[in-house]
Amino acid sequence: MLSRVIDWCASNRFLVFTGTLLLVLAGIWSLKNIPLDALPDISDVQVIVHVPWEGQPPSIIEDQVTYPIVTALLAAPHVKAVRAQTMFGDAYIFVVFEDGTDLYWARSRVLEYIQQLQGVLPKNVSPMIGPDATGAGWVYEYALIDHSHQHSLADLRSLQDWYLRYQLETVPGVSEVASIGGFVRQYQVNLDPNKLRAYNIPLSMVIDRIRDSTNEVGGRVLEMGGAQYMIRGLGYLRSLQDLETVPVATKNGTPVLVRNLGTVTFGPDIRQGVVEWDGEGETVGGIIVMRDGMNALRVIDGAKKKLAEIKPSLPPGVEIVSGYDRSGLIHASIETLQRDLLEEALIVSFVTMAFLFHFRSALIPILTLPIAVLASFIPMYFLHVSSNIMSLGGLALAIGVLIDAAIVMVENGYRHLSEHLAAAGASGGRLTEKERRRILMGAAKQVGPAIFFSLLIILVSFLPVFLLEAQEGRMFRPLAWTKTLSVAFSSILAITLVPVLMVIFIRGRLKPESANPFSRWTQALYLPVLRLCLRYRKTTLLLNLIFLAATLPLAWRIGSQFMPPLYEGSALYMPTALPGISITQASTLLQEQDRIIKSFPEVESVFGAVGRSDSPTDNAPLDMYDTTIMLKPREQWRAGMTYEKLIRAMDEKLQFPGLTNTWTMPVQNRLDMELTGIKTPVGLKIQGPNVDGIQRAGAQVQQVLGAVPELRSI
Questions:
Q1: Is the dihedral of CA 339, 343, 348, 349 positive or negative?
Q2: Which among 31, 36, 40 has a CA at the least distance from the CA of 375?
Q3: 378 and 506 belong to one structural domain
Q4: For the segment 148-157, what is each residue's pLDDT rounded down to a tens digit?
Q5: Do 601 and 471 fall within a single domain?
Q6: What is the pTM of this model?
Q7: Which domain holds residue 680?
């Protein structure tokens, strides 16, 4: 069967080249359109339900909101786990679905089950689901800086909420733009209890009258003077004066207005988050959350272009600066792997050319290598496998295997043809074109089937990786896909394109293998060793067993880690304060921390945050800090400074009473928090019947683990 395929391809070179050209073009198109990211997204299929209930304590929200929603969602199909967090004024429910569940199907199921709870939940509670994004979706963060000092934090927050946010949400691939920091402006009515008592007006009446007054009503039409006019009542409140003149009641024929019962002013909403820039003071920030499955690099570039378009229309003195930009990490990771792939391909090509010692013959495996790599991107695109360090790492692992098949076939064809040419030359004859082709095809059919099936065996060896589940599968499956696909295309090219190229390129003056100086040199080194090993077989086996036994203790002492640390070019400082800290104190500590961090010469910028943004993907309490530190290129660091030394130096200077320091990196932290709810790779969850017992157990665990060496903080 395979021999007939080889013969057919050799006889239909035009069709083979046409198919190869189409394959290359499709591969280039897929390569340009495949999603790019630094790491594969290993997060679960998750839907977040956010339930705001302003002013209510956690115990009430837990009993009346969180518990009914969690118990209902546990019965939803394909739900693997449901986690919940309840805090003052908010509840967050994280619904984790089984692997392979379609995200939008999961979102519709969650909405369906929430609809069934409308009669159970309190009337003024409206659950909402979060954006269609994963934990790795925070791809870009920015801050609004007022260099003129003429704009208040409320002005900057209004600019972010009512202008920037809607502009950035139009960028393709953006799921949500979250705001954090500043003051959300409100109309606030401060009532005087004594005046309410004097007028005998209850508080509920004031609330009802204000609610009913901000409204517009429609009427009929009025025909007058040959024209038709629409009749409507204008009632929306547009200023403080409008709110002050709202009538609440009537006393002795005189209306009692809101201003008669208290004062009306602009004021801030309750703040649950603060952001700070470079230790210079509070500001307003924005977080761009990418939609699930989108190209992170394309989304970031689109957001930057949109911000550049917005820049001329910003108020005087206001500047938008980047607080976190993942595109630098993506570019660095992909470029490093691409450079490594290119270097590996060049080395393989050089070795191939040196040992074949025939330029045109060496071109055959060199040409098939990039074709197999490009072809592997076609199914990657349709399988939604992104281009990241794991998938490209699979290609790096496969390069040696990809070129093996072509080398064996070319070497076999070269040897057969050179032997026949030598025999023909000795007899004074010459080979015809038909005879040369017959010899080359015979050599190809001799080793082609064996090579094809040997590559299939390599494919089978990677099948267990596809059986991995959960995080392990999501992490290593891209590597297995790219290696498997590239080897599969290499095996197909070995029996289709390679025979055609052999007929075209293996011609002219062919030297025998013994004339190759590299072959002679390697044989001179290898043959004595081979003879010695064959002569002392038992000793050779014994030495190998001894070496194997010696490696076992070393293997046991090597540490293990699920995901190797990736230097992201940034750091994330996440200390935790004691519960109950005020937002004023938290803001003061945040600015002091950022000022210390910015004093290090290796730091480019510091974008500090404490508390949470207005996104359902952010459930941070007010005692959790989240400071993103963008680092300068390593070439600008002090001599001898490393990342670990820098973190240790920062940690020594950032010792504040009541704060427990935690150091990680942005992408790693987002993945850790979504998978486990803990912000570090290693953590413990303590459950118990009451809070006091949990706190005592936590203190005991902290004391015991404090004696473990090499722990930076706990």
A1: positive
A2: 31
A3: yes
A4: 888 888 889 9
A5: no
A6: 0.81
A7: 570-687
